[in-house]
## 1
Amino acid sequence: QQQVKQSPQSLIVQKGGISIINCAYENTAFDYFPWYQQFPGKGPALLIAIRPDVSEKKEGRFTISFNKSAKQFSLHIMDSQPGDSATYFCAARKGGTSYGKLTFGQGTILTVHP
Amino acid sequence: DAGVIQSPRHEVTEMGQEVTLRCKPISGHDYLFWYRQTMMRGLELLIYFNNNVPIDDSGMPEDRFSAKMPNASFSTLKIQPSEPRDSAVYFCASSLKTNTEAFFGQGTRLTVV
C-alpha cells in the first residue's frame, strides 16, 4: 500500500521557471511532512518541512503548500536553477514516532535547463 | 562533524555470500535508521534503533536480514545469504532526538550477482 503518492515522476523546467511537485497521503495520523533533495551518488538531505497546523512554509526559493482537508501538499521551487536539478522526495511521519521514521513518496527527477 | 559515515561505498558480491554494511552515526545522535532504495520500491525503512536498542524492525524483508548496534557509534546491517534481488542502495541515517531531522549517509551500493 503506497501511503504517500508523488507526482510527476519527472519534470523538466527552464531556468527561471517554477517547479511544482505534488504529494498526496492517506493516513490522517501523519503529522510531519518533509521534503528531501537527493543528488546522484549522495544521500537524501532535508530541504524543508511542514506540520499540518500551517498551510504554507517558505524558505528562500522553496515553498511548501499544505491542504489538510484534501490530504495534499506540494513543493514549489521559484526561479528554478540548473543547480536545483536533483531527485525530490516528499515524505511523512506518524505522530508519536521519530522524525526519521518516514514514509517516502516515489520521487521526482527534476531537470532544470539553462 | 563528518556526518553519517557508511562503508563500503560499493559492494559487489556473489549470490549466497554474506554481506555486511557498516554505519557510523553522527556523534551524540540517539536514533539510527537503515533505509533501502530501489527503483521499484523507492526508499523504504528497514529498521531503526533508539539508544542502541532496536525499536521497529517491521521493514526488514526476511530473516536473511539482520541489524545490530553494539554501541552508540556503530551499526551493521547483515544479509546472509545474499540474493540478486537484494541489490539496492542502502542508506543509514541518524537523528539527535525524536523530533529532529534525520541526516543520511552517502549510502552503500550493493550489487549481488
## 2
Amino acid sequence: DQQVKQNSPSLSVQEGRISILNCDYTNSMFDYFLWYKKYPAEGPTFLISISSIKDKNEDGRFTVFLNKSAKHLSLHIVPSQPGDSAVYFCAARGPGSARQLTFGSGTQLTVLP
Amino acid sequence: ETGVTQTPRHLVMGMTNKKSLKCEQHLGHNAMYWYKQSAKKPLELMFVYNFKEQTENNSVPSRFSPECPNSSHLFLHLHTLQPEDSALYLCASSPTGSSGAFFGQGTRLTVV
C-alpha cells in the first residue's frame, strides 16, 4: 500500500498562472516532506521541503503547504513558467532509524506558453 | 550537476548477461542509495548503505547484488534479469541523518 500518493498523474497550466501539485500521505510518523523535480533523462533534484512542525515554507516562486490533520501537502508555483515543465515527486521522511524517503508516483506538470 | 555520477547512462542486456551499474559521489556523504523507477510508479528504494555498511534491503531479488567498496562508490551488479526489471535505476547520496538526497542522472536499463 502506497504511503505517499500523488493522485494526479498530470497537470497543465497556462504560463503566468498558478500551478498546484498535491500529495497525500498515510503515515502520521513522517516528520519531513520534500518536493523533487525531474526532467527527462535526469535524476530528481531537490526543490523545497517542510518540517512537520510547520505549515508553510516559501522559497521564491515555490511554496509548500502542509496540513497535518488532513495528511496533505501541496506545492504552489506562481507564476508558472515553461521551464517548470517536469515531473514533480513528493517525498516523506521516516519513521525508522534509517530515516529513508518514501516517494509518490509523481505528477507531470506542463506549463503552456 | 548534483555531484552524483552514474555510469552507464543507458544499458541493454540479455537475460543471461551479467553487468554492473556504477555510482560515484565526492560530496563527502556517508549514505548511498539505489532506487528503481518503473513507468508511472513511485521511486522504489532498493538498498541503503551507511558508512559502507548495508542497512536496508527492501526485499530486492537476489539477481540484484549491491556493493559498496568505500563511501564514495556504489555498484549494483546485475545477473539473470527479467524483462520486467527494465527501469530507470537511480543512485542517491546524502549526509547521514539528512532529510534530503542528491540523485544521479540514472541508468536506463532495458532487459531483452
